[in-house]
Amino acid sequence: MSGAGSWFDRRFRSPTARHSLYCFPFAGGSAGYYADWAEYFTGSVELVPVQLPGRGARMTEPLATSLDTVADEVAGLIAAAPTVPLLFGHSMGAILAFETARRLRARQKRVGHLFVSGRPAPPIGRPLQPMSSLPRPEFVGVLRDYGCIDEEILAHDELLDLLLPMMRSDFSLIERYRYRPGVPLDCAILAWCGDRDPEVTPEAMRGWGDETCSGFELRVRPGGHFFLTEHREEVAQAVQHASARHDEGERDATV
């Protein structure tokens, strides 16, 4: 098992934090995507981007072959940490965050809140058609439609040669994921989606409410699949609010 230093970007750790926001990447994404969020977390919440193998500082490691295996390893590390975990994931990362929350509950580690965006509820398979094995031109077209890679990179064959194996691997992770029904989580879920995302509709997102017994809210915002970039401040505010409510609940319980 890899250590916490491999799985987590530790640049934004705080010795005084009471909560840790673990951010899981979308397909093809890395921990670096969340670095710009650090400015919003300087108080009781520390930012902890999750770094998957095969990218960033872990570029030389073999790519992950199972979402369940990733969730198992990350949950084990989070369970050993003293802070209250808050979990966020976009697209593929939403499933990783969800499965990690399930494993933390099994380890009797209370999750403060689960935040998900850009991914239908876990029982709904996505993508609807296998894409990881598409011929290169068609696969590049899919990436262009999703907007997950800059156009200048898509036009650069040498950079694509480096990125495509990772992208295909991540799409394959999603295609092989199989949801297993279980007891709803005991943490609240807050979900977001873009109003112009062709595959992630508000109707598909509402199913997340079935995965918790502690409250659910859906927020629909302008944008496509990567609406998140323009709304990161709102996400940060929601996280801060949730952590404050959790602390209030803890204080009330001790009175």
Keywords:
255 residues, alpha/beta, six-stranded parallel beta sheet, 8 helices, 37% helix, 14% strand
**Overall 3D shape:** globular
- Beta content comes to 5-15%
Count helical runs.
8
Tell me about the largest β-sheet: 6 strands, parallel
- Strand order in the sheet with the most strands: 2-1-3-4-5-6
Order of helices and strands: HEEHEHEHHHEHEH
Low-pLDDT runs of 5+ residues are: none
Q: For the residues shown, what is the average pLDDT?
A: 89
Distance between the termini: 41 Å
Task: Determine Rg (CA atoms, Å).
Answer: 18 Å
**What structural category arises from helix and sheet content?**
alpha/beta
Q: How would you classify the quaternary structure?
A: single chain
Strand segment count:
6
Q: How much helix is in the residues?
A: 25-40%
Question: What secondary-structure arrangement, pairings included, does this model have?
Answer:
Blueprint: H1 4-7, E1 19-24, E2 45-49, H2 67-79, E3 84-90, H3 92-106, E4 113-117, H4 136-146, H5 151-154, H6 157-176, E5 189-194, H7 202-206, E6 216-221, H8 232-254
Parallel strand pairs: 1-2, 1-3, 3-4, 4-5, 5-6
Helix pairs in contact: 2-3
